[in-house]
Each structure stands twice: as C-alpha cells, then as structure tokens.
Amino acid sequence: MGSLRLVTIVLLTIVGLLGSPAFAQSPTYGVGRTPTAAEIRALDISIGPTGEELPAGRGTAKEGAKVFELQGCIVCHGAEGKGGGPAPALKSKTSHDLPIWKRERILPLRAPFATTVWDYINRGMPLGREGILTADEVYALTAYLLFVNQVIPEDEVLDKQSLPKVKMPIGDEYGRLPDWKPGTPRLEGYPY
Ligand code: HEC
Hints:
Blueprint: H1 2-19, H2 21-25, H3 37-43, E1 58-59, H4 61-70, H5 73-77, H6 107-110, H7 114-124, H8 135-148, E2 158-159, H9 171-175
Antiparallel strand pairs: 1-2
Helix pairs in contact: 4-8, 7-8
Heme C (HEC) binds at residues 71-73, 75-77, 87-88, 90, 106-108, 120-121, 125-128, 141, 145.
C-alpha cells in the first residue's frame, strides 16, 4: 500500500508540474518540429479582399470556358456550370433585375469580393484534385464564371490589378448591411 501511495504522489506531482506555465511552454514531448518557411508558404495561400496576395497571371472568360472543360469542372458542375451533375450549379438562372438576396446562392454571383471566387477555386477545386490549377487557369476560370453570371463582360482581362476592382452585384447592398443590435430582424432572403 505504501508504494501505491508513493506512485500516486509522484503522478500528482507530475500532473501538477505539466499544468504549470513553465512546462506548458517548454518543448519536452519530442514530437513535431517548427515548420520551415517554405512549408508555411505552401499553406499560406488565402487571398483577402484587396488581392494583395494574388500571384502574377491573367485570364479571360473565353480561355476559362476551355479550362472549364479541360480540367473536368464540367463533369461535376455541368456544361457552362448549369448544373445537372453531382455538384451545385455555378450559373444563375434568375433575372438580373431581382435583388441579389432573391437570387441563387452561387459563389461567383453572391460573393462580396471577386477575389473570394479566385481564392475558392484556387484552394478547393477541382474537388479531389485541388492544387493542380495554374494561376492563369484560375484567373481564366474566375473570369468565365463571373461572365456567365453577367458580372463582367466577356473580353475583360482579369489579373492582380483588375480582379480586386470587379464590382460584385452584392456591392452596395453589402456595404449598407445594418449593424446588428438585439431585436434586429433577419434580412429578407438572407440564407445563412
Ligand atoms: C468531383 C466533382 C467536382 C469537380 C471536378 C469540380 N467541382 Fe466545384 N464543387 C464540387 C462540389 C461538391 C461543390 C460544393 C462544395 C460545397 O458546397 O461545400 C463545388 C463547389 C464549387 C464552387 C462554389 C459553388 C458555390 O456557389 O458555393 C465553385 C465556384 C466551383 N466548385 C468551381 C469549380 C471549378 C472551376 C472546377 C474545375 C476546375 C470545379 N469546381 C470542379 C464538385 C466539383
């Protein structure tokens, strides 16, 4: 019984020490390592609204239409992104005149910033083969999906400078969202 009590005291002491700030901060476990700068760069790829992190490159809707077929987007999202496959449609079917909240929840239509569309495609698509697209292809696909949703004209060239300047349909409405206070009603048609 004596040795059991000793073991208990030792264990409690260790648990107590592990919980103390000195132990919490020291690398005593021998697992993991500090990532290299290159490893952090490979993961640190998200693009903010200003687009300052965007890489060099360019693309148009016409080029994007080809990439959409070549890279197999069409298999899941249907021809011209009209849907019908296993993935959501990427092309709006509702009238341009309707308020944005009454239209479909389609990223290249509803996103508050065009850079978000670029970022999503770059990081998440094609599903299951993420990371295979070149920067030019992502610019072209973004241009194509913004064009089929009538956000930009077919001949607009998207690059690091022009993409952040694209005015998304949500534009002013998004800017006018009221500050939330207790009792503020849900926005009409707001889906989230
Ligand atoms: C293997 C099937 C598959 C392929 C191939 C694929 N996607 Fe997707 N995609 C999906 C699915 C599933 C979703 C929905 C994901 C979710 O909502 O979480 C999606 C979502 C999206 C969205 C956001 C839709 C929205 O409104 O929220 C975009 C944009 C998109 N894909 C573009 C592309 C592009 C461009 C390609 C080709 C480079 C591509 N996808 C290839 C399955 C696919």
